[in-house]
Amino acid sequence: MEKNSSVMFVRLLVAMFMFAAVSWNMSGCEAAQWERVVSSATETAELDVSSIRRVHFPNAGANVVCLVKVIAADNSYVISQVALRINNGNKESAMMSCTVYDANGNVVGQDPGTGEPSAADYEIVSPGSHGEALFDKAMYYAQ
Q1: Max Cα separation, the chain?
Q2: Does the CA dihedral 67-70-74-75 come out positive or negative?
Q3: What is the pLDDT of residues 94-140, one digit of tens each?
Q4: Rounded distance, CA 33 to CA 19, Å?
Q5: Distance CA 69, CA 46 (A)
Q6: What is the pLDDT of residues 33-88, one digit of tens each?
Q7: What is the per-residue DSSP string for 56-118?
Q8: How far apart are the first and last CA of the chain?
Q9: Cα–Cα distance, 143 to 138 (Å, whole number)
């Protein structure tokens, strides 16, 4: 009887530990909050407002990093992690990583990226473009 009690007590401790570990791990999870920013006949661009973070890279400086989803007319889509910054008065963006999905949600391509973007990775955002609309919305949420 005493042996059964100690086994039950150990099982209870293990169960409590596992519950605490899962609960702690889940607290960092957050569902994406996709917000449509621009749409045309050929594509829709969305921004995950829950992913927007201010980041200071050692070489690239102050950036806003977030996830962008571009959905094609055939429902295939690309989710990219992008870095956004203002450099010498210019709005610039750099793709840090991307995953390409088919219309059924299957991964068909991937570029895991390298972490911090280099100066060569940045491109000037064209005024009046979908990219500028995404840039402006991300900067608005990053305030």
Answers
A1: 77
A2: positive
A3: 999 999 999 999 999 999 998 899 999 999 999 999 999 999 999 99
A4: 27
A5: 5
A6: 999 999 999 999 999 999 999 999 999 999 999 999 999 999 999 999 999 999 99
A7: EETTTEEEEEEEEEEEETTS-EEEEEEEEEEETTEEEEEEEEEEEE-TTS-EEEEE---SSPP
A8: 63
A9: 9
